[in-house]
Amino acid sequence: MLRGKHLLIGSLLLNLIFIFILTYKAQKPTLKELSDENEISELIKDENNNAQVIGAEEEIDLQKVIKVIDGDTIVLENSETVRYIGIDTPEVSQGRECFSKESTEKNIELVLGKEIRLKKDVSERDRYGRLLRYVYVGDTFINETLVRDGFAFSYTYPPDVKYSELFKEAEKDARENKRGLWGKCNESLRISPSLREEKTDGSANSSQNLNLDLNCSSNSYNCTDFKTQAEAQSVFESCGGTSNDIHKLDRDGDGRVCETLP
Fold first, then answer.
1. How far, in Å, CA of 123 to CA of 140, rounded?
2. How far apart are CA 79 and CA 239, in angstroms?
3. Transmembrane segments in this chain: where (predicted)?
4. What's the angle, vertex CA 218, arms to CA 215 and CA 220, rounded to 5?
């Protein structure tokens, strides 16, 4: 009789334990329940080994810089070329614009050989296939630093306008305090991005119209010095065209130089 009671009690306890386990599993959150359409959360254990939900961290693109092309363009260890968003520095390839050397050297100082963080705005690449990114080294915002220290112009090109107001303010600050190119280059030698675009689009006749300091007396330029065929063509024509192709840019003598450039 006593044994029968023990068996009955044991059976009831087992049933209660089984019901408890089923209830616990039904109430335990699943990964799907912890997620929504825009974010996948992950479970981690805290110091008390209790499960907590945390949001996935923003993805950070870390890369090492192996080459600096000019003040606003670099090459990464993965062979990608990056063009800084929202700014424009004096061009090295377009007749060595005023302060182009200094801007390039500053960019070298800031990023060469260092690990950088890359942040995207809207566009992935420009028409030349270069990545368009905001660049950081530690807490230093490289795009802004170049503008604020007078090594670059603010240059907003939609749709990538996230920091346009910041860059405009930085340029105003540099200009008012005559930092960098604002103190070293007189007004006629400051080639703004908009004026450079006019030249590339054919609104200006030659690099001489932009007061560029061209070297037309010795072989100083190669096609690799230019980003576009229009840039190379402008220098070629400014130095005399086919009658004075001192830089040997027109290899086939047809009057059109560096034809492999975009």
1. 22
2. 34
3. 6-24
4. 65
The residues pairing with 65 across neighbouring beta strands, listed in sequence order, are 76
- Positions marked active-site: 83, 91, 130
Residue among 57, 58, 59, 62 at smallest CA distance from 117: 62
Residues 130-173: pLDDT tens digits? 999 999 999 999 999 999 999 999 998 899 999 999 999 999 99
- In tens, the pLDDT along 87-126 reads 999 988 755 789 999 999 999 999 999 999 999 999 999 9
Which of 77, 67, 74 lies closest to 135, judged by CA? 74
Residue-range domains of the chain with CATH: 61-187 (2.40.50.90), 189-244 (no CATH)
What does residue 115 show for φ and ψ, rounded to 5 degrees? -85, 125
